[in-house]
Amino acid sequence: MPAAGVVLIVAVLLIVLALVYYLVSTIVALRQITAGLDEAIAGVVEIIEKSAPVEEVVKDINANLDAGVDLLEGLLVKKAGLVDSMGLVDGLYPGAAAAGLRNFPDSTAIEAPRISEVYTKGTLTLARLGREAPIAAASPNGPVLRNIEGGSLDARSLYPEARQSRPERLARSPVIGTNAPVQYPPSEARGGTPPGDDELEEKGQWAETAAEGIVPAELGGSDAPREMLDEDPELGSEALGETTGSDAPATESGIDPTAGDEADATSDGGPAPTEEGAEPDLKDAAAPPRQVDADDRS
Amino acid sequence: MTLWWIGDVLLIVVVLPVVIYLLKGVLDAARSIVPSVSRIAAAAQAGSKDLDAVPLLLTTQAHVKTTVEVVAGYGGSLDVIIDDAEEE
User: Fold this and answer.
1) Closest CA to A257 of A244, A245, A247
2) Phi first, then psi: what are they for A101, rounded to 5°?
3) Helices assigned H by DSSP within A52-95
4) Which of B33, B40, B47 sits opposite A47 (nearest CB)?
5) Angle of CA points A75, A80, A86, to nearest 5°
6) Distance CA A282, CA A260 (A)
7) What is the DSSP string of A111-144?
8) What global pTM score does this model have?
9) How far is A160 from chain B (nearest CA, A)?
10) Which residues in chain A have their CB less than 8 angstroms from residue B11's CB?
11) How many CA atoms lie within 13 A of A141 on its CB side?
12) Region of A17 on the Ramachandran plot (φ > 0 left; ψ -120 to 50 alpha; else beta)
């Protein structure tokens, strides 16, 4: 074979090799593209499926919101009138009146009144709610609804007189104790009667505790029925003592009634003097002074 | 013989480079598409994930309906207790 033929064969081989290399590489790249497109298509299909009901739902939401807007706009215009409505809207959202109300095309041409500057907050509502409210009543000074100062001051008169006139001293809280206008006598008496007014005045503040009484029996005081008390009340009648419930003298001889209200047990009462040499009744003997007192005196 | 050699030279110097150039262009174009397709697939998956909240629209729809019903009730009550604006 001539050399030229060999070179030709080599050249053709090179061309074929180049074709194989590049075509195989292209095939690989195209397969990658196919795989990527399959992935993308799956994602797009998912998007389409997920977004399919959106239109219907959003339309329904918009319809409901439209109904709400229609209702509120209609109510506002019905209650306040178209002109005042624009003033109220502009008072809440400055500049919003220029856009007007959706269902009232004429509202864009209305110059919004400065309602928020003329009415105190709620005055308009109060005026329309209460036909007898002072701000709605005829005033000799003219209507107050359009009067900034008058409207503000009249609104105050809607409140109770006690707060309005601001008295220096409001009624005090209920008073308890000795000087209370309403006295509640104690329900129980332990070892004596409740002190009266004279005794309280003489003995001072410490006697007031007894006058105010302690826990009433109906609330479970110590003289309440046993079924109302605890199983083991801390103090029983034996410890607290109780009144005798009779006028009989506590001592055998008693107090000499001839002394009257000035009777004194130390001089007008006690046992009769014993005979000379007779044994005295020791229960009536006076207790001797304590040793420390005797020492102090000496 | 001379023609043989001329043909060899043409084949090696002209045809082979032209074939290689063209094939390389096709391969480069194909390879440049791959990352773009990958980004498209990623974007589609992200978009699909973003739409996972779409079922919540049903809840929103129910809430809006309830809200409008409440507003209607409130407005109806106001219509009863507040006088209408006076006719001018």
Assistant:
1) A247
2) -95, 145
3) 54-80, 82-92
4) B47
5) 95
6) 28
7) ----HHHHSPTTHHHHHHH-TTSTTTS--TT--S
8) 0.44
9) 24
10) 8, 11-12, 15
11) 13
12) alpha
The whole-angstrom separation of Cα B84 and Cα A150 is 24
B31-50: b (≥16 Cβ within 10 Å) or e:
bebbeebbebbeebbeebee
Are the beta carbons of A194 and A210 closer than 8 angstroms?
yes
Mean pLDDT of A146-173: 53
Per-residue pLDDT tens digits for A239-285:
555 556 566 666 666 556 666 666 666 666 555 555 665 665 555 55
Interchain pair B27, A26: CB under 8 A: yes
Whole-complex ipTM = 0.74
Q: Token digits for A68? A: 């709400």
SS (H, E, C) chain B: CHHHHHHHHHHHHHHHHHHHHHHHHHHHHHHHHHHHHHHHHHHHHHHHHHHHHCCHHHHHHHHHHHHHHHHHHHHHHHHHHCCCCCCC
Q: Which two tokens stand for residue A32?
A: 């990658």
